[in-house]
Amino acid sequence: MARDAGGAGPGWPHHGAAGDGVEPRDAGARPAVQPGRRVPRPLSGTCAVRAHPPRAHRAGGCGPGGTVRDGAGAHRAGERAHAPDADPPAEGDWRQPAPRGTRGADRGRPGARRRRDDGVPRLDGGAVAARPLHQEKQMPRIKTETLTMGYQEHGTGDNVVLAVHGNLGCANWLDLALPLLPDQLRVVTAEWRGCGDSEKPQPTTDFSNYAMSVHARDHLALLDALGIAKCHLYCHSTGGIIASYMLDAAPDRFGKVLMLDPVSPLGLQLAPGQVDVLTAMKGDTDVCFAGLASAAPTLFRPETLVAGQSPQFAATASAGQRELFRLLVEKTRLLSDGVWFGTPQNLAREWESGALAARMPAMKHEHLILYGKMDYWIPRDHMDVMVQKLPNARLELFPSVGHSMNLEQPSLFARVFTDYFGG
């Protein structure tokens, strides 16, 4: 029997995701926001999870077929031990805590009285103390059969990986990891319709032109336009269900699949209040900062990731991580409403339909699923369903990582990525 070596302990509640992958429509919804608990999770309706003291990585059981193991057992180079009650680990320089009186510069808050000095312009036009943002290269754009897409490439050669980002995202989510990958591994990072530098079609009233299957067709058309007949797939968060649609539509075009905290083929329920949270995030940069902070919790002090508090960077968050996080917040201002509001509506339709989930047994590609145990966005139960239903899937767990290993632990992520895809 597969086991979770990292297991939930006292005081660390398990994600209470409903649904077993067979009858998802009968499951009860979870609230999107729990007053007095953590900041809102904009993507899913998962329960709030209390931050727990980081612990040393431990190798877990591993067997043939669908297995679960502690991720660090396969990637010892990334192992670190931390004293109880220490801040969650973050990749980068391990500097001393900021001196007294400097905490305000690291604050990003909804409703806090102290100004956040994060270099992100306010949506209301008010100026914030300037700080140089992550320097971006001009992203190429290519016209495909479906629309014009922004994309960037790292490396060259015949070993190609198409990277599909998550909701509210852009290609920059891989900016810290890409330079750590070998040059002989060609990675194409594309941006969804409605995101970043890609074309932004006007959403239909039901957001059907931003459905997960439509995003999948866009990415298949991108491969055609780039002349890529076959490649591997990497996907993060909502990119997971998009990748599953691609596997279903064109199974012969893909080799291995690496999923980072993915939205599964089950989809996600639309939780009460979720659209209100997204509306607030779209209209207020500070609320957006707080919402996205829950996607990378180990970059922030745990006690500041609660309702009414200002997410404050942990001392262990490197300058590069802070700068990139600010850029990711800023780039949400480019998103179409088809992404802001169409994504949760379309994920809810997937949940209610169950059609893609029923086709998981036909997705015979090798899958490696990575899951951070501090993920507040994606139900752990859905990872277990994928391991059970997909013919060739493994799940690796990382105790001291949240939803975004690519941002929280880019060196560890790059090692896993390289080991899996080769290079």
UniProtKB/TrEMBL annotation:
<protein>
    <submittedName>
        <fullName>Alpha/beta fold hydrolase</fullName>
    </submittedName>
</protein>
<dbReference type="InterPro" id="IPR029058">
    <property type="entry name" value="AB_hydrolase_fold"/>
</dbReference>
<keyword id="KW-0378">Hydrolase</keyword>
<feature type="compositionally biased region" description="Basic and acidic residues">
    <location>
        <begin position="72"/>
        <end position="85"/>
    </location>
</feature>
<dbReference type="GO" id="GO:0046464">
    <property type="term" value="P:acylglycerol catabolic process"/>
</dbReference>
<feature type="compositionally biased region" description="Gly residues">
    <location>
        <begin position="1"/>
        <end position="10"/>
    </location>
</feature>
<feature type="compositionally biased region" description="Basic and acidic residues">
    <location>
        <begin position="103"/>
        <end position="121"/>
    </location>
</feature>
<dbReference type="Pfam" id="PF00561">
    <property type="entry name" value="Abhydrolase_1"/>
</dbReference>
<dbReference type="InterPro" id="IPR000073">
    <property type="entry name" value="AB_hydrolase_1"/>
</dbReference>
<dbReference type="InterPro" id="IPR050266">
    <property type="entry name" value="AB_hydrolase_sf"/>
</dbReference>
<dbReference type="GO" id="GO:0016020">
    <property type="term" value="C:membrane"/>
</dbReference>
<dbReference type="GO" id="GO:0047372">
    <property type="term" value="F:monoacylglycerol lipase activity"/>
</dbReference>
<feature type="region of interest" description="Disordered">
    <location>
        <begin position="1"/>
        <end position="140"/>
    </location>
</feature>
<feature type="domain" description="AB hydrolase-1">
    <location>
        <begin position="159"/>
        <end position="409"/>
    </location>
</feature>
